[in-house]
Design goal:
The complex is a heterotrimer of chains A (351), B (322) and C (251).
Chain A: H1 2-9, E1 33-34, H2 42-50, E2 54-59, H3 64-79, E3 83-89, H4 94-105, E4 111-114, H5 123-131, E5 135-139, E6 154-158, H6 160-175, E7 179-186, H7 191-207, E8 211-219, H8 225-235, E9 241-244, H9 247-259, E10 266-270, H10 274-281, E11 286-292, H11 294-309, E12 317-320, E13 322-325, H12 330-338, H13 344-350
Parallel strand pairs in A: 1-12, 2-3, 2-4, 4-5, 5-6, 6-12, 7-8, 7-9, 9-10, 10-11
Antiparallel strand pairs in A: 11-13
Helix pairs in contact in A: 3-11, 4-5, 6-7, 8-9, 10-13
Chain B: H1 12-37, H2 46-71, H3 79-97, H4 99-123, H5 128-146, E1 152-153, H6 157-165, E2 167-168, E3 171-172, H7 173-191, H8 193-203, H9 205-210, H10 215-241, E4 243-244, H11 253-262, H12 274-293, H13 298-316
Antiparallel strand pairs in B: 1-4, 2-3
Chain C: E1 9-18, E2 21-31, E3 36-40, H1 47-54, E4 62-67, E5 70-71, H2 77-82, E6 85-88, H3 100-104, H4 120-134, H5 150-164, E7 168-172, H6 180-195, E8 199-203, H7 207-213, E9 216-221, E10 224-230, H8 236-244
Parallel strand pairs in C: 3-8, 3-9, 6-7, 7-8
Antiparallel strand pairs in C: 1-2, 1-4, 4-5, 9-10
Helix pairs in contact in C: 5-6
The chains are: A alpha/beta (351), B mainly alpha (322), C alpha/beta (251).
């Protein structure tokens, strides 16, 4: 779900990041810093608490992913004595996001957290906030032309390479380190999926000599994922495992496997999703789902912006951790990624 | 004895007048509510109130076009896509050839799309609902392919001043555009034969036809006008955001329809109000603004907004129940 | 009384076919100023086709149409109106959500100046004068059509025709949907047209009404003109016989 969201968010050519082998880089090529490195000392926290600051959350849209980020930010702000005074949803519309930012400025917030709808052209959207002295922290992307430290505190995102690598490791674990793989990747120029997919493939090729990707299929339109899966399985009925770029197209692959009566081919994908988790919990085709710690993205963005209130610089590009969720750790996975209980149906099935 | 018997108790004009005031009363009620509830949070500042007008300018201008279209008994679902195509055409022409070609490209794209819709409706006698449903998708596709999904920055200072952030005698240009469009729209709608023919066409097309009104031409005209005004809205978006993207206007259709209906324009023709559409549009903008400033969560904002629109629409459509 | 004047409308040997089907043939009729002529016949006898020919909607296949002695060919309702012919359609052709005065001036709105701005004041004044003159009892020129009773609407439609007709008004079932009292009011208005020296051709299914209003009665059966009778010189039995073709002695 997370990727679908991001997919629609950033225009496809807007984030020309280069995936350097093995390292996740930011939208402008920044080196990644682990989110855990950003620490506020008790003294700093106390100073921030005395400031009675306020914050506004100007999201690009509302989804389960945004909600997790939102919850993380709110919890972090609560700890810092910062009151959240407004929350907006731009519905992927840059014009509406501009209106939202203008509107929340009427409440004179000290901080605005946002995911820019259209980073390439978002500068006029956020410039009034910069001019008003509001501290900004962004998720995934910063407006083109904005300078870290001067215009915004930090960009917080996933450790994309690690997510892809963990998917490969999970695949190797479930197949015992050997087998024939199918690889369904996102066939579009989008740095989030490109880095994750690339990391999966690179890890399989470098670390697991007995595993081989025998079938590759790009997917440009998620709506056509079932046809793609069907074709892939018809040509390669003996696959041991299939990697799918994110959970929703993975469900189409599951449908295709079920239609073929195939219960032995394992699926590994990214981003938590209830139907996929349910299949995994009941011992179906899904073997692992790699999930980012979306809640921690909100926490980190909140802390970075709060640090800026003290004049303390945060690293430009902070990345949060991720984990491979399997049948054994579903409850924990949901907690760490989305900071909520897993759906009851999934928990029941996993017992 | 007089043939015009005056029966004041049953004067139908009275009831209609009250109907037309619903939107103004609603606007006032919401304004007073926010002014009281949000008195400490900047709602009443000049800056915030002028923000509402600036933010709603494109929707207001699209709504003016829709008043003509709905009053003529047609509908235009393609306004959002038209906005995107116009804004992108303007941005590309602006960066390539300068201010005047940019403006002409934006308005021209809108007028052409409108005329295309209008020609299909007027002469092929296809229902406008289906025509514009199809062209909504068609031109959304055109907008996507026009610049290969890329956003186009608009850097021409004259353009962004004229259509976006500029002022004249201290008045923001978006306010001037809104006032000009409402004034011309109101005049054309209320005080010209064209406006009367639009209403007659929407009210009873057969009666209009046998009365010598060129009904197909009216249909062509209202849809072309709607396209042209959507084109202007596209210019305003491009000026305000200093960029054009295929997503511009995509989510505006429902807001435009709601503003128009709340403003006292009937969905099925024969009755409309330009000033009502302006107030309806401002009311939508004020709702968005006030609910955000109240600190409501996004879900709660949507629920409250939906509920208020429902009440407003119910009140302004009550005439139909009689 | 209308004998001595020239006819406002003269139809000579009108024939109309749709494809191979003959709708009207050998139809000839004169209508004089201030004369009310009723067109009667069963459903499908060709009455509506004749009205459409005279109002310019369908041009005749053959035959001549003369207005005030001049041959005319008409291809649209607009042309018929230009010749001073107005029609009150069975559905009245009123715009229901518009005011009485805008309906009276539908498609022919008064404008003030070259900018083309509507002259509402003039239209309202003229409407008020007209409804008073014709004794059409409506609340006000501003009243919205949908708030009026059936009789009032009929009155507005007839008032509109009266206002614009210089020579002839065609009435298609003017009282079909009305109650007794409203029918009486509308009949008074129709008689008012006669007083204004306008020719009237009306279709009616009510023989009582025809005998109350018409000077002459023209009977159609299956597209053929069976005959024209002076009201004063005929009776219902003869007309019914002509309509149905049952009795002998016709033509």
């Amino acid at each position: 779900m997370r990727t679908l969201v991001a997919l629609l968010t950033a225009s496809i050519l807007a984030a020309p990041a280069l995936a350097v082998e093995g390292i996740t880089t930011g939208p402008n090529g920044e080196t990644a810093t682990p989110a855990a490195d950003l620490i506020l000392s008790p003294d700093e926290v106390a100073t921030i608490r005395q400031g009675h600051h306020t914050a506004a959350l100007a999201w690009h849209e509302m989804s389960e992913y945004t909600r997790a980020v939102d919850r993380g930010a709110r919890d972090a702000f609560a700890d810092l004595g910062i009151e959240v005074v407004a929350q907006t949803d731009a519905g992927f519309d840059a014009a509406r996001q501009k209106a939202d930012v203008e509107t929340v400025l009427a409440k004179h917030p000290s901080i605005i957290l946002s995911l820019p709808v259209d980073p390439a052209t978002a500068a006029p959207v956020f410039q009034p906030a910069v001019d008003a002295g509001v501290k900004l922290a962004f998720v995934d992307n910063s407006p083109a032309g904005f300078v870290h430290g001067r215009d915004y505190a930090a960009v917080v995102s996933d450790d994309l390479f690690q997510m892809g690598k963990k998917a490969a490791d999970a695949m190797a674990a479930v197949l015992g380190g050997k087998g024939k793989l199918g690889y369904i990747y996102h066939d579009a120029d989008f740095y989030v999926t490109n880095q994750r997919d690339g990391a999966f493939k690179a890890t399989i090729e470098a670390d697991f000599p007995d595993m081989e990707i025998v079938a590759e299929q790009g997917m440009a339109d998620p709506a056509r994922s079932e046809e793609i899966a069907q074709a892939l399985l018809t040509q390669n009925p003996d696959l041991d495992g299939i990697y799918v770029t994110w959970a929703e197209p993975a469900l189409s692959v599951l449908a295709a496997l079920k239609a073929a009566g195939n219960s032995h081919t394992k699926i590994v994908t990214l981003d938590l999703n209830e139907p996929a988790a349910l299949d995994m919990a009941t011992g179906g085709n899904f073997a692992a789902i790699v999930a980012d710690e979306a809640y921690d993205i909100g926490q980190t963005a909140a802390r970075a912006s709060a640090a800026a209130l003290l004049g303390k610089a945060a690293p430009p590009f902070l990345v949060v951790d991720s984990l491979a969720v399997t049948r054994d750790n579903i409850a924990e996975g949901w907690q760490r990624s989305l900071h909520t209980d897993a759906p009851v149906s999934v928990l029941e099935a996993a017992k | 004895m007089s043939g015009t018997v005056q029966d004041t108790r049953r004067n139908p004009a009275r009831r209609i007048d009250w109907q037309q005031h619903v939107v103004y009363l609603g606007f006032l009620a919401i304004f007073v509510f926010f002014a009281v509830v949000l008195r400490d949070t900047g709602f009443l500042t000049v800056r915030n109130l002028s923000n509402i007008v600036l933010q709603t300018a494109p929707v207001t201008i699209m709504a003016i076009g829709l008043v003509f279209v709905l009053s003529a008994g047609e509908i235009d679902l393609s306004v959002g896509s038209t906005v995107a195509v116009s804004a992108l055409s303007a941005a590309v022409a602006l960066n390539g050839w300068g201010l005047v070609p940019g403006v002409l490209a934006g308005l021209g794209a809108g007028l052409l799309i409108g005329a295309f819709n209008g020609a299909l409706v007027a002469w092929l006698r296809l229902p406008s609902f289906l025509v514009t449903l199809a062209t909504m998708g068609l031109f959304a596709g055109v907008a996507r392919s026009l610049t290969d999904l890329r956003s186009i920055p608009v850097t021409n200072g004259a353009f962004t001043g004229f259509f976006g952030s500029g002022t004249l005698f201290g008045i923001p240009s978006l306010v001037l555009w809104t006032v000009a469009a409402v004034a011309f729209g109101h005049l054309a709608f209320r005080e010209t034969r064209f406006g009367a023919h639009v209403l007659a066409t929407g009210d009873n097309p057969r009666a209009a036809l046998v009365s010598g009104i060129r009904v197909p031409r009216v249909r062509l005209a209202v849809l072309t006008l709607s396209g042209g005004l959507a084109g202007l809205a596209g210019l305003l978006y491009a000026g305000r955001l200093q960029a054009a993207k295929y997503t511009l206007g995509e989510t505006d259709l429902m807001t435009v329809i709601a503003a128009t209906i709340v403003g006292g324009t009937l969905l099925n023709g024969g009755k409309g109000s330009i000033v009502g559409a302006l107030v309806g549009s401002l009311m939508m903008g004020m709702l968005n603004n006030g609910l955000i400033l109240m600190g409501l969560s996004v879900s709660d904002q949507m629920i409250v907004r939906g509920f208020i629109i429902l009440v407003a629409v119910a009140l302004s459509l009550r005439e139909k129940a009689s | 009384m209308a004998r001595m004047t020239a006819p406002v409308l003269a139809l000579r040997d009108i024939r109309k076919t749709f494809g191979g089907v003959v709708a009207v043939e050998d139809f000839s009729l004169d209508i004089h100023p201030g004369e009310i002529v009723a067109l009667v016949g069963d459903n499908g006898a060709g009455k509506s086709t004749l009205i459409k020919i005279i109002s310019g909607v369908h041009p005749p296949t053959s035959g001549a149409l003369t207005i005030d002695g001049a041959d005319v060919t008409m291809s649209s309702a607009t042309m018929a109106r230009a010749h001073g012919i107005e029609v009150v359609y069975q559905d009245l052709a009123l715009a229901d959500r518009q005011s009485v005065y805008m309906n009276l001036f539908l498609g022919r709105e008064r404008v003030r100046n070259r900018l083309g701005l509507l002259d509402r004041r003039a239209m309202i004044a003229e409407t008020a004068r007209l409804v008073e003159e014709l004794d059409v009892r409506i609340p006000s020129p501003h009243a919205i059509i949908r708030d009026l009773s059936g009789g009032q609407r009929q009155g507005v439609a007839i008032a509109r025709a009266t206002h614009w007709a210089r020579k002839l008004v065609l009435l298609d079932e003017p009282t079909a949907a009305l109650g007794v009292a409203e029918t009486a009011r509308v009949e008074e208005i129709i008689l008012g047209l006669k007083a204004r020296r306008i020719g009237v051709l009306m279709i009616s299914h009510s023989l009582d009404q025809v005998f109350r209003l018409a000077d002459r009665i023209c009977v159609l059966r299956r597209g053929r003109q069976i005959g024209v009778r002076r009201t004063a010189e005929t009776d219902k039995n003869e007309i019914v016989a002509m309509i149905t073709g049952v009795a002998s002695g016709v033509e």
